[in-house]
Amino acid sequence: MFLIDKSNITDYLKMHMPYLDYSKPLIISEIGDGNENEDGDGYLNFVFRVSDGNYKLIVKQSREHGRIASFLTLPVDRGEQEYESMRIRSAIVPEYIPKLYFCDKENHVFVTEDVSHMHILRFGLNQNIIFPKLAKQLGEYLAKTHFYTSEYYLDTKTFRDMTIHFMNHSMRNIFDNFHFITKTEDHPATGSDLDARYASYVLELLLDPQVQVERHKLHQKYIGQGQTFIHGDFHTSNVFIDQEDMKVIDMEYTFCGPFAYDVGYMQSHLLSQYLSANFRLFSSEEERKEFKDYMLSSLREVYEEYCNCFFDCWNKDAKDFYRAVPLLQESVRMDLLHDTTAFCANSNLSRTTGDIGYPEYDMIDDPAQQAHAICMSVVADVNILKNHQSYQSIDDFINDILATEKEYMSHFD
Questions:
Q1: Which of 19, 63, 131, 138 keeps 20 to 30 A from 123, CA to CA?
Q2: In whole angstroms, what is the distance from residue 85 CA to residue 314 CA?
């Protein structure tokens, strides 16, 4: 296996992309050279930005151990599967996928368009930037890629073959347990190092029997519901965006899973933005209110856009076997409502009380304010997990968030 680095990547590309302009040195940087706002975390893979002044490329190599997560042993063919999954999605929604150039299976390398002229969504939101098309773009991307890779559309054999091909156990295993199961040994793991008072309060909420049951039920859905071709790690660091366009990256966790998982996982990162905005710095209270209103409307609209687009595709292209069943759409819609809100709460709960940093909260400088942001988030998540099966509309979910916020913030009046 040819291990790429900045010193040899030009020679490597000459073999695979002879049409680049090599008359002058290529501009080369490695993810990790810049700051997190520019690069993201580059947690698993070795990723290089390369430009000849015309082509702007991402060169990504998978190795047995992660770039930062060196303690993980990983399948080296994950890049090949990621490239294949990007090709499938590009055939459905080319406007949301970076251009694809080639995949070198022997050396576990693939090359795509570099879209880093756009904002990483997470860090744009952390800077309080409003992207007016965000909810529509997220909802449309998910709805179309989900519907057209589901058995509602595909013939059953093709769907089963795809399910087997993208089983992806080794990558899924990273999420299988820690994302749903609370650590109880010693104390709750908290990336923000909560002091004893807050940690004890958070642990009591996490160990609520009803909360644990709901999280285990979600775990079973994540493990067992192979409904569609999901991204698997669809959060705000894996979306590039500007005022007009959006591109989705990092699809190495792809497998056939629940419709609701990607939607809820993305919603959890919007929820974290909304709740942490109560405690982080803004230039004015007016700016804080505008940003919070935007986040709250985005939480609602991502779900609504997803449903509207998904069922538009259904009405146009679903197999007759499904279109002939009265009330089936309404049943699917209610399942989506209950499961997306639960996955949202579970994901936010996992990240706020987990070992891995959570930038939406980590950026709050004052430790006491950060602790309050985390505690309020945990309370909101717990309430959603307890109540989600009773929701009749997305407004019930929004109202639960607002009620938690009002109650918690009343203690500061």
A1: 63
A2: 22
